[in-house]
Every structure is written in C-alpha cells, then in structure tokens.
Amino acid sequence: MAPSASKTSTVKKKAAVYITGESPLVEEYAELGSSHGYTVVVQWNEDRKRDTVYRRSAIVPAGTSLALELTNTDLERKKKNLQKLDRALPPTAAIISSSVTVSASEQATWINHRHRLSGCSVLPSFSAGSVIEVAPTVYTPVETMEVVRRFFASLGKTCEFVEDRVGMVLPRVVCQIINEACFALQEGVSTPAELDTAMTLGVNYPHGPIEWAEAIGLRQVEAVLVALQKDLGEDRYRVAPLLRQMAMTGEWWNKKPQEGS
Amino acid sequence: MIKHVGVVGAGTMGAGIALAAARSGLDVILYDVNDTVLRQALERIKTDLKQGVAKGKVPADEVSSIVTRIHPRTNLSDFHACELVVEAIIEDLRVKKDLFKHLETHTKTSTVLATNTSSLSVTAITSVLRKPERGIGLHFFNPAHIMKLVEIVRTRATSESTVAFARSFLHDIGKQPVLVRDTPGFIVNRVARPFYGEALRLLGEQVATHEQIDRILKQGAGFAMGPFELMDLIGIDVNFAVTQSMYDQFFGEPRYRPHPIQKQMVDAGRLGKKTGAGFYTYNDNTK
Ligand SMILES: NC(=O)c1ccc[n+]([C@@H]2O[C@H](COP(=O)([O-])OP(=O)(O)OC[C@H]3O[C@@H](n4cnc5c(N)ncnc54)[C@H](O)[C@@H]3O)[C@@H](O)[C@H]2O)c1
Fold first, then answer.
1. What domains can be seen in chain B, in order of their start residue?
2. Are residues A128 and A202 both part of a single domain?
3. Residue from A190, A207, A211 to probe the interface with B (highest B Cβ count within 10 Å)
4. From the CA of B278, how many Å to the nearest CA of chain A?
5. Cα separation, B243 vs B190, whole angstroms
6. Chain B closest CA to A173's CA: distance in Å?
C-alpha cells in the first residue's frame, strides 16, 4: 500500500460527515454532529421528521472527510455499508464503526483500506455520555486513532482506548444487567415496575433495567448478548427467552402483577 | 397503624431499623444478647440522630422522644405486645432458625415474624414456625434509617394478610416496598451481580483497566460509582461471599460464577477501603 494511502487526515470543523446504520443511532449521532458544527449527511433513517438538521442521501457526497457506520443488529447490511464506504471515500478519510456486536478487526478484513477503520462503542440512548470507548484494530495506525480522538473530542467526548473485543465494556455490562432482570421477570420473581424501583432505589442505578431495555431497544440488547455468546462460547451470555420473545415481537410482556404465587 | 415493633439484633441493621420505626412514632423493643451491645447501639442511634438534625432531616426537639421510644431489652418475652418482630442477627441459618423457634413461643399467634436476611432462604428460616404463614422477609438496605427501599420477600407459605401487614408497616415508616418471591438474591443482589461479574471478567480478559471500566460506566452510562470503586467500598470479601452464595444457591449457574481475581484480592488481604487497599489504594485520611 502506498504510504500516502495509509494515512488518514484530521477532520476540520464544518467538515462533511456521512453516517450509515440503523435507527435510532443514526438520528442520535446526526443530531450530535450537526449541533457541534459538522455538515451531516445520513444514508438512511426511519424518522423523516428530523430531516431539518441533516440531509439524507444514498450516495456518499464528494468531500466527505469522515464516515460513521452505526449498525449493530444486521451484520450483512453492516458489511455492505462498510464496503460501499470504502469504495466511495478517499483513502485519507477515516471510518469509525460500531464494534459492539462484531470486532473492529473482523470488520477491517471486509474492506481494502484497512488502516482507516476504528471501532467504537455505540448503543441507543448513550449519545449524551461524556466518555466513549474506542478500539483500534490490528491494522489501525496511531494517525487514524488520533483522528478518532479529535473527532470525539469535538463532540465533547473523551475517548477510552480499549481492546477490540465483542461487547466492549458498557454494552456488555448494561446488557447483562438487563438480561438478568429478564430472567428474574421470567421466573416470576417480581414485576417490571418493581424490578426498576428496586434497582434505582436500592443501588442507585441511573435507570431501572426494564426501562433501560426499552430506551436502548430490545433488538439491540439481544444482538449484543447473542454476539457475546457466540464470541466467548459461554452459556453465561445466553439470552433470556422472554427478552428474545420481546425483541422478536416488539410486544412488551404482560405487565399485570402476578396473582398469587 | 401498628404501635409496637420488636427488633432482634442491635447491630448495624437492627439499630437502623429501630431508628426508622421510632422516628415514625412507633414503640420499639430492641433486643440483643447483652446490655453492652445495646448501650453501644443506642449511642450509634444518638449519633445518627445528631447527623439527622445537622442535615435538617430530624427536628431537634423530637430527638429525645425518639430515643425514649426505643426500649433496649435482653429478654425475648418482652416481645409479647409486639405486632411485628424483625430479626437482624448474624447471617447464619442455624442460629436464625433457632431464634425463630423461640420467637414463636414468645409472641402472640397474630404477630408477624420477619427476617432481614440478605442471602439466606426466607423459606428455610421460617420453615421452623408451626404457622409459617406468619413468616416473611423484610430486606432493608444499609443505612436502614435512610435507604427508602425494602424488599418484601414472600415464601409459598406467607399469607396475604402477612404481606398486607408488612406493606402497611413499611408505609407507616416511609419506606418504598417491592414484593419479591423468595428466590436467591431477591431482586437487588441478583440483578446487580453482572455489574461486578462482567467488570471482573473484562478486567481479567484485559479488555480495559479497572480505572477505565469505572470511568466508562460512570461517564458513559451514568452509574454513580464504578464497579471497582463499589467493590472497594462494600468490601471485596463481602462481595465475593455474596457472589459465591448466589452461585451455590443456583447450583452452578454460570452467570453467577465468582471470578479468580476476587479470591486473589481476598487472599492478599486487599479487601478495599477498610484495609486501605483494594483495586485502588487509600491513604489513612480517606479510609
Ligand atoms: N450490613 C448490611 O449491609 C446488611 C444489609 C441488609 C441485610 N443485612 C442482614 O442483616 C442481618 C444483620 O446484619 P448486620 O450487618 O446488622 O450485622 P451486625 O453484626 O452488625 O449485627 C448483628 C447483631 O446481632 C446480634 N446477635 C447475634 N446473634 C444473636 C442471637 N442469637 N440473638 C440475638 N442477637 C444476636 C449481635 O450481637 C449483633 O449485635 C444479617 O442477616 C445480614 O445479612 C445486612
């Protein structure tokens, strides 16, 4: 690879950022980017009402200097998105891709310009956090990670550089808490509302696990747990059947308190 | 409204429960094995009340009447007038069972008998009662006079009227109850397991350092404390024991498996804040 092709260049303010991925992550990051002065274009989004702060375009606009790929559930689509970005972007443009359900290094093997890709941890509802995990791949040079660090700093976020492992830190911990709550619910230990009350009042959690599951989205939570179980090969991460059912049907479970026991 | 409540065990939890009840106007019989323990408990209660006054939570002119409503006793027969007795003695199944047998003979048949156990089976403790429908778990959190949450733990034998009675008592003393079926760890200790367990695995797999994991979960997810700070505060030995107990009670369910790092910290005597070092080190003035 030519030396010029193994460098990514710093993203200037007002620069164009192209976002691919699934809702509501694309909306969250499009708004965050727009509100911090970037010209944001998203490939696709569900919520058309919000089109006021950013544009939609199926084509990567010329002059795009950075791309975000924010898919966690449909990995086939993620692969297609990354390959499209890799073809369309100049080699100096970095791609920051969610590496919650598939490692960033594995993603890098899907594309040609492997040096430009860095992993990051994104799940819906956490975009306001002041710290974000990022993971260099086995191919990522320091220059690319410096681009990533500066980009997140410009959004008001400090980067924590962690190892490139499926689940990363925040998604693995939070989704296992939700999974445990779903097992407890399934076993009739208590009700959804009481599980939430117990965790917020008893140990001061920022959200009850059931309320958190709704905010993140059950399909996202399930995808993280399935990926962990596959990657680590352990029963510890098997998905509570109730959680899986909810993720598939989109229907919340019976919230009526149990009669008797 | 319930008027007389008994508390067995004047340790950390018993004193806190007695204070919570006395503050709400209830008369409390506070029992322990000897007068020295009871005297120390009352001193702690007075200190807590002083802090309550300083923080504007307790009116200064109520302090003496609150204290006089707490009656230290060393004889179980003094519970005869109590409508509810809450047990908060050492976490030992044999000792608790033994106590419940005695409590049944020293109280009216209508008295509700509650245990504050964190990790033992409420079913096992109350199984010694001739009328196990009187038995229930009331799991308070430390400090019991401040923390609002109480887990009401019902067994298969616990009657509806016992649950209703527990609810109205907790309402009277300003607590927020949640109703839980008797299962290991109830809600809080169970659902909190992954917060520590996954953090330990992430550290063991060297995905991130303990400082990074704490920062990510605090500033990324909004937790008030990181898992390693919290383990240091709780005591790594205590946290390890709770995890081990959950793992055993679920017969080896892998979600509750303790981590070798916990045992190694205990082996090294690095138990957290109380020993001056755990995952973090603490100098003397922050202990
Ligand atoms: N400390 C906590 O954070 C916490 C929280 C919730 C529940 N609990 C549970 O509450 C109970 C008490 O815990 P603690 O931390 O207050 O313990 P502690 O050691 O502070 O107090 C226990 C008290 O019980 C007394 N005692 C022991 N055996 C007795 C007996 N046979 N008869 C009468 N009194 C006896 C002791 O003298 C002591 O004063 C335990 O079951 C524990 O699991 C503790």
1. 4-181 (3.40.50.720), 192-277 (1.10.1040.50)
2. no
3. A190
4. 21
5. 9
6. 6
Kindly state whether residues A148 and A204 are assigned to the same domain.
no
Its ipTM equals: 0.96
Question: Which pLDDT belongs to residue B62?
Answer: 96
pLDDT at A15: 87
Of B118, B121, B239, B245, catalytic: B118
| A224 in Cβ contact with A101 (< 8 Å) | yes
| Residue A259 falls inside a structural domain | no
Sign of CA dihedral A192, A194, A199, A204: positive
Cβ neighbours of residue A230 closer than 8 Å, sequence gap 6 or more: A166
Range(s) of the domain holding residue A198: 170-249
Q: Whose CA is nearest to atom 40 of ligand 1?
A: B91
Cβ neighbours of A209 in B, within 8 Å? 191
- Say if residues A89 and A60 touch (Cβ distance below 8 Å): yes
User: Same domain, yes or no, for A138 and A199?
Assistant: no
pLDDT surpassing 60 at residue B211: yes
Q: List, for residues A53-77, the tens digit of each pLDDT value.
A: 788 888 999 999 999 999 999 999 9
What pLDDT does A44 receive? 77
pTM for this one?
0.94
- Chain A's closest residue to B254, CA to CA, is A236
The DSSP call for residue A249 is H
- For residue A21, what pLDDT is reported? 95
The reply to whether B151 belongs to the active site is yes
Q: A138: exposed, middle or buried (C-beta count within 10 Å: 0-12, 13-18, 19+)?
A: exposed
Closest in A158, A174, A197 to B221, CB measured: A174
At residue A252 the predicted structure's pLDDT band, cuts being 50, 70 and 90, is: low
Residue A261 confidence (pLDDT) above 80: no
At A138, which CATH number? 3.40.50.720
